[in-house]
């Protein structure tokens, strides 16, 4: 049974607010990825943990990302189609269009990350056996150099380096397309409901 908490929100209002809600979720997800995955990239155990983590994260994460981007773009287009005259009068139509386009712009970063993700998910998982942990629980520089040399001999990718590269791309993507879509959706909602 409905609690009545949303009784004042009709279909029109929900559609006009949907781009703001979904772009907020995309922005939070992008920032959370940066926060949590940067911890693994800084950890001495990152080399061993990252391949399995990416294998578990990727199927769920990519589904969530596509769903949120599709919802933002779709709701923006739906709002423009269903309520274009109102949005034009309020000066919000262009903001809805920009929110949808920026959400889709997130996909322009796929070529920059796809190879790195593939290499991390396919990395050999026995790297943990090759990492020498020092007395205080940190990997020594000598051990890191030895592990890197061993990895290069085996053809194993440096997953921590790949993760750091992915993090740089993710941060740029989050601060451009995701934040941009959110700002546009926010302005669109303010203009529409003011």
Quick check: average pLDDT? 87
- What's the N-to-C terminus distance? 32 Å
Give me the number of helical elements.
6
Number of strands: 0
Q: What's the shape?
A: elongated
**SSE string, helices as H and strands as E:** HHHHHH
Instruction: Return Rg in Å.
Output: 22 Å
Assign the structural class, choosing from mainly alpha, mainly beta, alpha/beta, alpha+beta, or little secondary structure. Answer: mainly alpha
Strand content: under 5%
Report the sheet with the most strands, covering strand number, pairing sense and barrel closure.
none
Helix percentage: over 70%
Count of the domains:
1
- Uncertain spans: 127-138
Region (Disordered): 133-156
Protein name: Alpha glucosidase II
Transmembrane segments: 61-81, 93-114
Keywords: Membrane, Transmembrane, Transmembrane helix
Care to describe what's here?
Helix 4 (about 110-120) packs across helix 6 (about 160-194). This protein has helices at about 10-40, 45-90, 95-105, 110-120, 140-155, 160-194. By secondary structure, it is mostly helical.
Write the layout of secondary structure elements.
Blueprint: H1 11-42, H2 46-90, H3 93-105, H4 110-121, H5 141-154, H6 159-193
Helix pairs in contact: 1-2, 1-6, 2-3, 2-6, 3-6, 4-6
């Amino acid at each position: 049974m409905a609690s009545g908490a949303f009784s004042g929100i009709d279909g029109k209002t929900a559609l006009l607010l949907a781009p703001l809600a979904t772009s907020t979720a995309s922005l939070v997800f992008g920032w959370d990825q940066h926060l949590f995955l940067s911890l693994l990239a800084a950890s001495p155990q990152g080399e061993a943990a990252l391949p399995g983590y990416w294998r578990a994260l990727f199927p769920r994460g990519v589904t969530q990302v596509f769903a949120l981007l599709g919802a933002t773009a779709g709701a923006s287009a739906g709002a423009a189609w269903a309520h274009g005259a109102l949005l034009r009068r309020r000066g919000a139509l262009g903001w809805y269009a920009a929110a949808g386009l920026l959400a889709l712009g997130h996909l322009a970063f796929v070529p920059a990350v796809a190879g790195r993700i593939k290499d991390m998910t396919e990395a050999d998982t026995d790297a943990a056996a090759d990492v020498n942990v020092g007395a205080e629980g940190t990997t020594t520089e000598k051990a890191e150099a030895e592990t890197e040399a061993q990895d290069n001999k085996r053809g194993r990718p440096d997953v921590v380096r790949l993760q750091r590269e992915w993090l740089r791309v993710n941060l740029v993507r989050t601060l451009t397309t995701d934040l941009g879509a959110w700002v546009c959706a926010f302005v669109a909602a303010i203009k529409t409901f003011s």
